[in-house]
Structure formats: C-alpha cells, structure tokens
Amino acid sequence: MKQGFRVVDAGLRDGRFNVALDQAMIELHQAARIPDTIRFIHFPPTALVGRHQVLSVARRGPVGIAQFRQVRQKLLRDERPKLHPRVTIEENDFEDFDWANQNLLTIARDFVLAADVTWSSGFAESGCGFAVRNDGDEENPSQYLIGLTRGAQGHVLFAEQVAGDVDLNQVTDIYANGIDPQFEWQNDTTNRIAIVGQGQQFTIYSNGTRLGTITGQSGFEEGFVAFFALNRSGGVRCDFDNAWLWRMN
To answer: What is the pLDDT of residues 25-55, one digit of tens each?
Structure first.
C-alpha cells in the first residue's frame, strides 16, 4: 500500500515552538517514524535568526525571536510545486461558467493546491473556485468542484459533477466566515485558499484556518485541475494569484 501523507495545523504558536516542532518532525521523518507531512505555520510577529547570527542585540517591542540551529530539510517528496501565473476570469452571461488553466496537461491524484482568490460579483451567489479530478470532457465533465460564494457573508461549497450533472443532494456547504474570522466576503477582497486532496478526502483551508474535511462519493481518482468562475447574474470577476500545485503522486 502506498504511504500517504498527513496535514498538521498546530494553530498560532510562537517562533521558538514552531522551529522546535519543525526540527522534531524532521528527525522523526528521517527515522521513518512519521509519514510525509504538510504543516501550516502560524506566527505572531517574529524575527527568524540564522544559525550563525547572535542573539545578543537588545530589542524592544512585542517581537519574538527564533533561531535555526541547523539547516531545515523539507518533509515532502522531491517534486517541486508547479507555479501558475496570475489568472483573471470574467463572466457576464447569465448562468454561465468559465474556467482557466495554463498547464493543461497536468494531471493530479493526491495534491495540495493553493491560491490567493480575489473576487467581485454583482450577485452574492456567483463565485470563484477550483475544479479537481476533472476527466477532460469539455461538454459533460465529471469532476469535484470547490466553490466560494459571497452569499451570507461567505460560504465554501463542495460539489460533485458526474457527466455534466451536479447532484445537489451531495453538495456540502461550509459557512466559512463562521469558522475563519478573517474570511473576506465583500467585493474586491482576497482570501488565501488551500485544498489538500488525498484519496477521496479533501481538506479545505482559508487564510490558514481549517474549514473542514469532505469525503467525495463519486470515486474520481485523478484528473485535471482548473480555476473557474460561475456567474448567476450581474457579472463576476475572479483573480487567482500566487497559485501553486504540489502533486504527491
């Protein structure tokens, strides 16, 4: 059986705790005692000091200090993240959908996907999002959809599309603003969205906060990845920036 990976989110911690935890995880991984790991790091204001720098300089103010004692090593596999240039999708036709991806031949199975999503829409139920495990059928696609809407101060939806049809009974609705107090739902605001897909489990993060884990029911194992914009009415504009995809397979 192929060994999977895990996601660790220890919450907001000071710099010394984060550096110590990183080092402990590196040593445990080298000893084959923990699997490949993705960790979300949350710092208060902190100065990270190199191993050859001294800490004797007096400082004032609410800034912590953390020092790296040895060179950090990555905990994931050798493949580098696939960076994507900035993309803007505008859609003005009623009840229309458009998508974009400049790396059309990239197929992902287990993955981490992240992007800064900036949105503006005339109707709150229009939105922006990500299509994953897409089968490449442009007319009647099968895929998982993770969409963001501004309605009711911000929601994230997980839907399954099979041969062009979305099963509304399997749509998962997450009240993002109720979980992530930094979730921005107004026009012309930005949220950092990250999605970790492993098997049929999809964990969604906004601005570093875990929103939840959803289990896909359709069994899509791999496929293409794309950004999308959905216009219900009044037009929608979606900007995807600082986006990357890390394939774990």
So the answer is: 777 777 777 777 877 777 676 666 555 455 4
Classify residue 154: in a domain, yes or no: yes
Q: Is residue 95 in some structural domain? A: yes
My answer on whether 160 and 55 are in the same domain is no
Give the separation between CA 239 and CA 223, rounded to whole angstroms.
23
Token readout for 210 is: 């875990």
Domain count, the chain: 2
Q: Residue 61: left if φ>0, alpha if ψ -120 to 50, beta else—which one?
A: left
The DSSP string of 102-168 is: S-TT-EESSEEEEEEEEEEESSTT-EEEEEEEE---SSS--EEEEEEE-GGG-EEEEEEEETTEE-G
Coil vs helix vs strand at 36: strand
Q: Are 76 and 36 in contact (CB under 8 A)?
A: yes
Same structural domain, 223 and 104: yes
Q: In Å, how far from its chain's centre is CA 84?
A: 14
- 186 shares a domain with 120: yes
Q: How far apart are CA 29 and CA 70, in angstroms?
A: 16
Select from 116, 109, 107 the least CA-distant residue to 226.
107
Which position has the higher pLDDT, 85 or 19? 85
